[in-house]
C-alpha cells in the first residue's frame, strides 16, 4: 500500500510539471521512480504504459481545440514510434547495472536542458512560416522516440524545442501535435517493453496508480500554470532532476564517488540551482513590469486617439 501511495504521488507530481510546462512528464516520473529504487527498464515501461492514457486524453483535448497539425503528427509520430520500440527493446536487453547509469545520464542531460531552457529563455516561442518537411521531422522523431524509451522520457524536451526553433509552426500547434504524436510513441514503447520484459515483469497496479495520480493532477496543473510562473517552475524542476540523477550516478557502481566528492558535487549543483531560481524570479518580475508599462502606454495612446476623434473639427 505504501508503494502504491508513493506511485500515485509520483504520477501526481509528474502531471503537475507536464501540465504547467508542456513537457517533462516522463523525465520527472522516471527520475522519481528510479530514486525509489525501481528497475530502469521497469520504470520506463511503467511510465509509458501510464502515458498511453494520459497522452490519449491530452491528444483528444488538443484536437477539440484545433491545436493539431495532423500532417506533422504522421511525419514525426510514425518514426517516433519506431525509435521508441527500438529503444525499449534495447533497454530491456541490458542488465540493471548497465541500464541504470545510461538512463540516469540521459535524464541528467534532459534535466540540464529543462533548467537552461526555462532559466535563460523562459517559455518556448516560435513563428509561423512555411510547412515542415518530412526530411526534418522523420529523423527528429526517430531520435526523440529512442531517447524517450531509453531515458524513460524525452519526447517533449527533444521534439518541442526543435520544431519551435524551426519557426515553421504556431506554438500551440507544436505542443498539440507533439502531445498527440506521443500517444503513438507510448504505445510503441510499451509494446517494446512487453516484448523485451514480458508482462510478468510489469506491475499493472503501479501503472493504474501512476495514471490515476496524473488524472487527479490535471485540473490542478491548469490552475497552477496561472499562479506559478512556468519560467520559475521549469528552473525548479530542472534542478531537481539534475540533483536526483547526479546522486544516482555518484552513488552507483559505475562511478562510486567518495563522500567528499559527492558533497562537493551536490553543493555545486545546489548553488547553481539556487542561482538559476533567483535569476528566473528576477527575469519574470522584469518581464511583468515591462508588460505592465507597455499596457499603461497602450491604454494612454488609445485614450488619446479616442479624445482626438471625439474633438470637434476646426
TrEMBL record:
Q: What is the top-level taxon of the source organism?
A: Bacteria
Query: What InterPro entries has UniProt attached to this entry?
Result: TM_pro_TauE-like, TSUP/Inactive_protease-like
**What Pfam families does UniProt report for this protein, alphabetically?**
TauE
Name of the protein described by the UniProt record: Probable membrane transporter protein
Q: Where is this region: Disordered?
A: 290-314
Bilayer topology: Multi-pass membrane protein
Subcellular localization, per the record? Answer: Cell membrane; Membrane
Primary localisation category:
membrane
Family designation: Belongs to the 4-toluene sulfonate uptake permease (TSUP) (TC 2.A.102) family.
From what organism does this protein derive? Streptosporangium carneum
The entry's keywords: Cell membrane, Membrane, Transmembrane, Transmembrane helix
Keyword Transmembrane carried by entry: yes
Q: Which GO terms describe its cellular component?
A: plasma membrane
Q: Where, by residue number, does the polypeptide cross the bilayer?
A: 102-123, 204-225, 232-250, 262-281
Amino acid at each position: 500500500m505504501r508503494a502504491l501511495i508513493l506511485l500515485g504521488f509520483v504520477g501526481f507530481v509528474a502531471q503537475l510539471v507536464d501540465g504547467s510546462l508542456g513537457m517533462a512528464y516522463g523525465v520527472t516520473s522516471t527520475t522519481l521512480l528510479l530514486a525509489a529504487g525501481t528497475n530502469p527498464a521497469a520504470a520506463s515501461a511503467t511510465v509509458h504504459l501510464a502515458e498511453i492514457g494520459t497522452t490519449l486524453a491530452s491528444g483528444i483535448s488538443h484536437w477539440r481545440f484545433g491545436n493539431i497539425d495532423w500532417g506533422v503528427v504522421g511525419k514525426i509520430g510514425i518514426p517516433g514510434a519506431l525509435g521508441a520500440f527500438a529503444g525499449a527493446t534495447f533497454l530491456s536487453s541490458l542488465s540493471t547495472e548497465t541500464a541504470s547509469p545510461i538512463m540516469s545520464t540521459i535524464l541528467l542531460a534532459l534535466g540540464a536542458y529543462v533548467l537552461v531552457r526555462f532559466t535563460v529563455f523562459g517559455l518556448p516561442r516560435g513563428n509561423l512560416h512555411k510547412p515542415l518537411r518530412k526530411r526534418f521531422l522523420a529523423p527528429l522523431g526517430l531520435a526523440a522516440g529512442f531517447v524517450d524509451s531509453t531515458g524513460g522520457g524525452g519526447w517533449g524536451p527533444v521534439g518541442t524545442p526543435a520544431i519551435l526553433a524551426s519557426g515553421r509552426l504556431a506554438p500551440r500547434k507544436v505542443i498539440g501535435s507533439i502531445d498527440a504524436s506521443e500517444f503513438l510513441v507510448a504505445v510503441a514503447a510499451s509494446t517494446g517493453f512487453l516484448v523485451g520484459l514480458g508482462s510478468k515483469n510489469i506491475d499493472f497496479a503501479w501503472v493504474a496508480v501512476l495514471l490515476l495520480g496524473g488524472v487527479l493532477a490535471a485540473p490542478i496543473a491548469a490552475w497552477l500554470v496561472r499562479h506559478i510562473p512556468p519560467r520559475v517552475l521549469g528552473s525548479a524542476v530542472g534542478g531537481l532532476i539534475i540533483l536526483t540523477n547526479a546522486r544516482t550516478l555518484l552513488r552507483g557502481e559505475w562511478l562510486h564517488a567518495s563522500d567528499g566528492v559527492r558533497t562537493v558535487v551536490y553543493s555545486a549543483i545546489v548553488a547553481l540551482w539556487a542561482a538559476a531560481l533567483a535569476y528566473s524570479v528576477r527575469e519574470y518580475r522584469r518581464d511583468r513590469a515591462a508588460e505592465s508599462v507597455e499596457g499603461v502606454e497602450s491604454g494612454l495612446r488609445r485614450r488619446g486617439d479616442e479624445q482626438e476623434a471625439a474633438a470637434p473639427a476646426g
